[in-house]
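INFO  loader      accepted 1 record
INFO  loader      residues=244
INFO  predictor   begin
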Amino acid sequence: MTDERPPQDASEPDSEALSKTSPPATPIDEAATTSEPAMTSEPTRTMSDSTPPSDTPPSYVPPPVPPPVVPPPDVPPPVAWSAPAAVVAPGRRTILAAAAGILLLAGGISGILLGLLIAVVGGTVISNLNFDQLGYFPDLGGADPGAVAGGVTVFVGVIIAVYSLAYLLAGIGVLRSSNSGRVLGIVVGIISGLIWLGGAKNAGQIPEASGALGLGAFSIVMLALHVYIVAALVFFWRTRTSTA
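INFO  predictor   done
INFO  writer      dumping tokens
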């Protein structure tokens, strides 16, 4: 191998020669080269301009406005819990009271029928009797003794019928568990009991009279029935009350 060396007399190309051979710079290239420093310096100028100087006073910031105060809604006070009130159920009418009502109802119906019978039939029969044959009668001021006796009989029959109507109303009220019917039954039972007690005493005082024994026994039975009516309505009206 042999080393190839350039000739000794060959010299490096001269810079002048290179400059002569290179093309001339165009105006566009010059403008581009001159504009690059300006572009690089523009951001620096903008940042320096946006930063306020240190001696500038701070801007005024208004204080925060608190929201309006809204009053709380009206809340009812708490109610303490309490146990519900016990419901008191009234007692029912007893069987003894119902039996007393049936007796009052039966006495009212029979009394009304008896009173009408006495007023209509008895008054007519007695007014047609010949009182001259029955003995001496006091002076009635010229009035017919038969008419007077018939009128008295009719009056007694009406009184019995009206009084028996109280029996009927009391019996209906007791069977319907009405307190007013109960009170009326007690009043009727007491009054009638006293009447039958007097009848029993009067029957015992005349033992020689015909039918006095039967009248006394009947009066005692009726007195016992009225005592039962009063006792049942006073002491055995209703059963005991219950709470639910």
